[in-house]
Amino acid sequence: MLPHILPYGRQTIEEDDIQAVVDVLKGDYLTTGPAVEAFEERIGAVTGAKYAVACANGTVALHLACIAAELQEGSCAIVPTMTFLATANAVRYCGADVVFCDADPKTGLMTEETFLKALAEADSKNFKVKAVIPVHLGGQPVDLMPICKIAHDQNIKIIADASHAIGGVYKDHPVGACDFEDMSTFSFHPVKTIAMGEGGAITTNDPDLASKMKRYRQHCMVKTEGMEPWAYEMNALGYNYRVTDIQCVLGLSQLNKIERFITKRESLVSLYTQMLEGLNPYIKSPCRVQKDRIGWHLYAIRIDFEALGISRAEIMARLKAKNVGTQVHYIPVHTQPYYKALYGEQDFTGATHYYNQTLSLPLYPAMEEADVTHVVNALKDSIE
Questions:
Q1: pLDDT digit string (tens) for 277-315?
Q2: What is the rounded distance in angstroms from the CA atom of residue 208 to the CA atom of residue 374?
Q3: 89-97 — which CB contacts under 8 Å span 24+ positions?
Q4: How confident is the model at residue 1 (pLDDT cuts 50, 70, 90)?
Q5: Fold of 258-383
C-alpha cells in the first residue's frame, strides 16, 4: 500500500509558480493590476476567443454570463441536472427559473434530444427560455453544433460551462473559442487543470457581452469622458467579482504548463483504460463520444454496483483504506431540497442511471504509472 493517499484530484504547484506569486507580493499591485489583463490575454490565446473576462471563481463566471444573457425574473435557462450546483444556482441568482434537462446515461452529457425535451417542458410552463448552459462534464465536450442551431434559431444564448474542459478541442476548435456558443465559463479551483486557488474566466467573441461582464465585475462603476478625475457613475447594481493579481500571476504561470498537464492527464487516462479492460462488464471506462482532444479533468468510471452486490459507499470505503481517494460527480441537481421545493419531484432517467454508476478515480499530473497501477489493483481487490 502507498504511504500517502491519492486524492481524486489536486493542484500541481512548482517552484516557478511560487516565485511568480512572491514577485507580485513584493510589487506594487496585489489586485486590479497588470497581471489581470495579462491573464485575460493569455486565456484568449489558449482558447482562441477574442475576449476574456477574469473573475473571482467559476461560480462568479457563470453568474456574470447569466447577467450578460439578460436572465431575470420571468425568464428561464435550461441546465443539465448532471452538474455541480453552481450551474443552476447562477441562474437563480438572476431571479430566473431553471428548467432541468436529462443526460446521456453513458456520458452524463446534455444531448440534442434532452435539450429538445427541456424546451418542450419550458413551453408547457409558458417559460421564456433566454439561455441554455451545456456542461462539458469531466472535460468531455457536449456536442454543441445541433444545440447551437436550435438555440440560435430561437434567439437563445448559449453559455457553455467549460469549468472542466480547458485545453480540450471540439470540432477542431479549442474549447472556449465561442465558435458555437455565445460565452464559455471556466474555473481554476485547485482540482482543475489550471489552479489559481480560486479564480474564473468567461470567454466570448462579442465585445458588448465582454464589456457588460467587466462592468458588472466591478460594481458597474463607469467613468466617461469629461468627468472629474475622481468621478464615476453606477447605473446598475453590480458586484465585487474581481480577481487579484496574486491569483492571476499564478494562473499565468500555470497556463505556461497547460500542454504538459494535459499530455500527462491523457497518458494517465490511456493507462487507466488499458488496465481496466479486464474488469468489463462490471466496470467501464469513460464513454468517449468524440475523436477530438479531451482536456481530461476527471476519470469517471461506471460501476454496476447492483450486479457486483456491493454498494458504492462500501467500495469507496475499501479504496480509502488502501489510500485511494474517490468522489462522485455529481448528485443530480434536481434532487436537491431547494430545487425540489421550487419545482417538485422530477424524473430524469438518463441522469439517474449515470449517477447511480459513476465514480471518479484519482487523476492529476503528479501521478505516476505506479499510482495508476495501485488504484486499479486496489479497485480489483475492493470488488472481490
A1: 988 889 999 999 888 999 999 999 999 999 999 999 999
A2: 51
A3: 89/59, 90/59, 90/62, 90/63, 90/65, 90/66, 91/66, 91/131, 91/133, 93/63, 93/66, 94/63, 94/66, 94/67, 95/71, 96/66, 96/71, 96/72, 96/130, 97/127, 97/342
A4: low
A5: Aspartate Aminotransferase, domain 1 (3.90.1150)
pLDDT score of 3:
66
Q: Are strands 169-170 and 200-204 parallel, antiparallel or unpaired?
A: unpaired
Strands (E), 84-163: 97-101, 128-132, 157-161
Question: Quick one: which of 131, 128, 130, 122 has its CA closest to 158?
Answer: 131
Domain 15-255 falls under CATH 3.40.640.10: yes
Query: Range with the lowest mean pLDDT among 70-79, 274-283, 302-311, 366-375?
Result: 274-283
Domain 15-255 and domain 258-383, same fold? Reply is no
pLDDT for residue 319 is more than 90: yes
- Which helix (H) or strand (E) covers residue 5, if one does? none
Instruction: Match 482558447 to its residue by C-alpha cell.
Output: 47
Angle between helical axes of 258-276 and 245-255 (0-180°, round to 10): 60
Please list the residues that pair with 233 across neighbouring strands: 222
Question: At residue 191, what are phi and psi to the nearest 5 degrees?
Answer: -85, -5
Cα–Cα distance, 222 to 65 (Å, whole number): 19
- Whether the pLDDT of residue 136 is over 80: the answer is yes
Q: Where do we find the cell 479551483? A: 189
Quick one: CA torsion of 215, 221, 225, 226, rounded to 10 degrees? Answer: 170
Domain residue ranges of the chain, discontinuous segments joined by +: 15-255, 258-383
* Residues with Cβ within 8 Å of residue 292, at least 6 apart in sequence: 141, 168, 169, 170, 171, 172
174-218 pLDDT per residue, tens: 999 999 999 999 999 999 999 999 999 999 999 999 999 999 999
User: What pTM value is reported for the model?
Assistant: 0.97
